[in-house]
Amino acid sequence: MVYQGKSVAVRALDNGVAELCFDAQGESVNKFDVATVNELSEAISALEAMPDLRGVLATSGKSVFIVGADITEFGGVFGAGPDAVIAHLSKNNENNNRLEDLKVPVVVAINGFALGGGLEFCLACDYRIASSAAKIGLPETKLGLIPGWGGTVRLPRIAGVDTAAEWIATGKDQRADAALTAGVVDAVVEPELLREAGLHALEQCMNGSFDIRTRRARKTGAMLLNDTEALMAFETAKSFIGAQAGRNYPAPVAAVKAMQKAAKADRAGALAAEAEAFAKLAQGSAAQALVGLFLSDQLIAKKAKQWEKKADKKIARASVLGAGIMGGGIAYQSALKGTPIKMKDIAQAGIDLGLSEASKLLTKQVERGRMKPAQMAEVLTRIEPCLSYQGFDAVDMVVEAVVENPKVKHAVLAEVEQSLGDDAVIASNTSTISISYLAQALKRPENFCGMHFFNPVHAMPLVEVIRGEKTSDKAIARTVAYANAMGKKAVVVNDCPGFLVNRVLFPYFAGFSMLLRDGADFQQVDRVMQAWGWPMGPAYLLDVVGIDTAAHCEAVMAEGFPTRMGKTFKACTDVMYEAGRYGQKNSLGFYRYEADKKGKPAKLVDDKTYQLLKPHCAETKEFSDEEIIARMMVPMVTEMARCLEEGVVETAAEADMSLIYGLGFPPFRGGVFRWVDSLGVEAVVAMAKQYQALGELYQPTDGMLALAKANKTYYA
């Protein structure tokens, strides 16, 4: 052994070849944390000191190559300022430069994921041989950043500006065959042949058959573009990427600008331009929010895995009660991810609708080339439609998804329990009704919890798993395990009206209703909130959710929290509901809907809406964007703070991720609590106090006041 660290080793092979192997002890993957970067520097020093070295083969001892930087280290580095960020980048840039400048050729064998810094290491090598199972990419823009270890420098010089701009701007993983076509890797072989192919390529380099000098010169010099070519390539890329990314996500365009600035520079100048752009982005709010989201996502995944480990058995067979759109979506998702499921309804029409929903979703997968017809047929065979409870004694998990009516749910839950084994878990897909109340219909309430999916099931990542007063840990563990198996993001919350997501959504809608009452134009409110970052404004969102559904939920929330969510005026949703305008489901809501050329509902302005609202609203007047944002967001903030203080949700991270995955809260703002932290809790308290005459929803909580007084934040 020439060098042995905890993550990096160098061993001598035959014929003057050394193997540089990444294999982090006690870890499932390799990543570039500070310790690994330091060890790599020592390993390269060991290689430089080997007297008879002729070539280096870089490998991984894991099932993946290197997944990138250790993002948990970013917070402290970013907080120390731009100079600290550049210093952090410089160490591994020095490593990659030294590797690229070795007097002998370096070939890398990419056996799995090589992402971010992992791919940047590979780009510094002379030749790249990939397993057919490998995936590579530069995902930094998803974190609001750009590559910082030479990605914007080497990739455009290897594969061209167009490929580099697309790969970096989208941040997508690339399959090995696509990487070969793009010229980013030099060969693709089957996994079992990878090491042999790497050694063969290295031998070709060592005997002079492969020209590494020309390759190195191209990577370390200016780009091979004249002024006209460079202008066209970069300006076109900036225009297209800027339009796609939008103003709230500056990183993709910043990456193109860094490449453009460095086009005529040598390696040192290009890396300096990249580091400067990276450091600037690292100080921005988007990067801080998106890095925070990444870490929060890891937290909820870790907690879900911990629950799964507590599950006493795997969900081998599930069932859903109530077919239709929601039941069909649940059945589709379960079957797609490999868990067979019974889909039960009281009428054949419901069964037909559920099967139609599952078939429609699968057909789209086939049409988009993501699935073969035979695979579609296999998934459909995992869905067993039925009109009775026959065979339910063999089911491990039941998801009740019948109409949102307490009496109906009570009857169905009591009925299905009689057909199940004593050990089976039942979960209700209710969106607002108390789990503890629904459990009153059951003989075994300890086996009952909530499992709230969001519509459309296949597209929305979140599942709220709701604990009732008598719910056991076993029921929660099995339900979270089932959500994990379905590919969902499970967050465990405690029972209350609306649970977490709907409990904080309806104060947001209440803010909207009060704005319209006071003379705001719903179209202006929609424009402002969409510009703020929401996928759609509140009026449009109500149309998509269904105004009849919203009216029902508002009644539940008003009963649960009468002093905050009870109405003292006729709300805009009540006006629409009483007029029979339910939104997209009947083509009339705040807007009017007509099918476009693709059959999708196109949103149109309808003067009738203004006529209906006029008797119940003040005379229309202009509100500033700032006032609209404050009046919309403060109720959501205060209610979210109450949920955290009451223990409805355990952590600020889980609360934020629930809104991002369940509602589409703007990711670049990082979630409600990260947004509050970015403004300062004291500033948000002051914002709320401006409007506290509007009611309890605008009054800061005791917890908010305490944080503001102590000058603290929700995220330490």
Could you characterize what this model shows?
With 716 residues, this protein is an alpha/beta fold. It has three domains: 3-283, 2-enoyl-CoA Hydratase, Chain A, domain 1 (Alpha-Beta Complex), CATH 3.90.226; 314-494, Rossmann fold; 502-710, N-(1-d-carboxylethyl)-l-norvaline Dehydrogenase, domain 2, CATH 1.10.1040.50. Helix content is 52%, strand content 12%. It is built from 31 helices and 20 strands. The strands form four sheets. The chain has an eight-stranded mixed β-sheet, sandwiched between helices. Strand 3 (17-22), helix 1 (34-49) and strand 4 (55-60) form a beta-alpha-beta unit. The mean pLDDT is 96.
- Spell out the CATH superfamily of the largest domain: 2-enoyl-CoA Hydratase, Chain A, domain 1
Could you say which structural class the secondary elements and strand pairing correspond to?
A: alpha/beta
The side-by-side strand order for the widest beta sheet comes to 13-12-11-14-15-16-17-18
Q: What is the overall shape?
A: globular
